[in-house]
Amino acid sequence: MLDTQYQYDFPEAGCDEAGRGCLAGPVFAAAVMLPPGFRDPLLNDSKQMTERNRDRLREIIEREAVAWAVEAVPPERIDEINILNASFEGMSLAVARLDPRPGFLAIDGNRFRTRLELPYKCIVKGDGKYADIAAASVLAKTHRDEYMRRLAEEFPQYGWLKNKGYPTREHRLAIREHGLTPHHRLSFNHEIDQLELPFGA
What we know:
single chain; alpha/beta; Nucleotidyltransferase, domain 5; five-stranded mixed sheet; 6 helices; 5 strands; globular
């Protein structure tokens, strides 16, 4: 069972993103403030959960969280400022929408930059350690997957219903055959001879 949050001196928001390694679609970021003592045996790093359990947890988190927000940073912004900065920007935008305002941020990963005047801690694999970060990973992942399913209806040839925009062989072959869409990140390498990133990265 995950600890609810990293520290208990200040109201804390857990933050995470989804879709950083994708060739297409926005990167989604979420910030979540959970009530004291929040527990759910299924809650974990979203990449370790089944789609069914992620969807179930999304409903619970959105209903029971003290506050939550999800932001999407589009491909053109990713190309402009790079994917790492886009992830930071998405998390900052999500945090800025929280009401009540947190006093501390627990960030999944090893780096973060923000203009928000809030103390924060970067935690490697934090989505497998703290419930508020895991909850943010679930919201970011489920909101992004939902968005990519809608895009897949318009562009079925890229396999987004299954690969969600990640650089699978199927996706790269479709790019070679059909070209790029307005939803592809132009600064990413789309060639078929590139090593495939692990699904869900």
